[in-house]
Write a structure and sequence with these properties.
Elements (H helix, E strand, L loop, with lengths): L1 H13 L1 H20 L1 H7 L2 H30 L2 H6 L5 H31 L5 H23 L5 H7 L1 H17 L5 H6 L3 H12 L4 H5 L2 H18 L7
Helix pairs in contact: 1-6, 2-4, 2-6, 3-4, 4-6, 4-7, 4-8, 4-9, 4-11, 7-11, 7-13, 9-11, 11-13
Length: about 240
């Protein structure tokens, strides 16, 4: 797995499109939110800023990069060649998504540290970490499912848009309006409960047990996405 991950990391730094989506876009958006943190804190809260930057990195830096990577490796038959080696399917997929996952986590940690530096530390760092990992797991699972519907790296620019924009829209909706109204709907939407968890972990004032319950809908999306990926994912291009 590590040899596959190292090879994939090299490919990421050689691909300008992935560099833009993985680094420049999420960092630029997050920097703007941090720079204008007082404005967005008045609009929602500091927890809202934390949630939206986590989902920005998750949607563009992790989800889109993973879908594009898997589609590209399928198109050039790299996936097919890897399956002819001793590596198992799980090791292959883990190696391919590992670099993008690590990069996304490093970005999230750096961005949230910068937010904490200008606005103050989060109320519950451990719960915040749990929320970030839940978002990463959900976005990876959604990426595996979407990769099964994506024929090429160019096609990924189309297939990833609904989920990328959708989870950020949900994060903004829940982060700004809260869950006092339409709570079941907001929590069941992809990213809704995770947003509430991130907001609560940063702002505080909510019991940890009540916040941990919010993990259930997120992991429900993980399970559903993995089940869909097992049916849709292809190792070779369609003929």
């Amino acid at each position: 797995m590590l040899s596959i991950a190292l090879s994939e990391l090299i490919q990421i730094f050689r691909n300008r499109l992935i560099l833009v989506t993985s680094f420049i876009m999420p960092v630029a958006v997050s920097a703007y939110f941090i720079y204008q943190h007082e404005v967005f804190a008045d609009l929602g809260s500091l927890g809202y800023i934390a949630a939206v930057v986590v989902f920005t990195v998750g949607a563009f830096g992790l989800y889109t990069t993973t879908v594009t990577t898997l589609a590209s490796r399928r198109q050039n038959l790299f996936l097919k060649r890897l399956r002819s080696t001793a590596a198992g399917d799980t090791s292959i997929l883990s190696g391919l998504v590992f670099p993008a996952t690590v990069i996304a986590l490093v970005q999230v940690v750096a961005i949230l540290a910068a937010l904490a530096g200008v606005s103050g530390s989060p109320a519950n760092v451990a719960l915040l970490a749990v929320g970030v990992l839940a978002v990463v797991a959900m976005m990876l699972a959604l990426a595996l499912a979407t990769a099964g519907l994506t024929n090429s790296p160019e096609h990924a620019q189309v297939t990833t848009l609904p989920v990328s924009l959708g989870v950020i829209a949900v994060a903004s909706w829940v982060g700004i309006s809260g869950t006092e109204e339409l709570a079941p709907l907001k929590r069941l939407l992809p990213g809704g409960s995770a947003t509430e968890l991130l907001v609560d972990s940063w702002n505080g004032g909510v019991a940890v047990a009540d916040s941990l319950i919010l993990l259930a809908p997120t992991f429900g999306w993980v399970i559903a996405s993995v089940a869909l990926a097992s049916r849709l994912f292809r190792w070779e291009p369609r003929r």
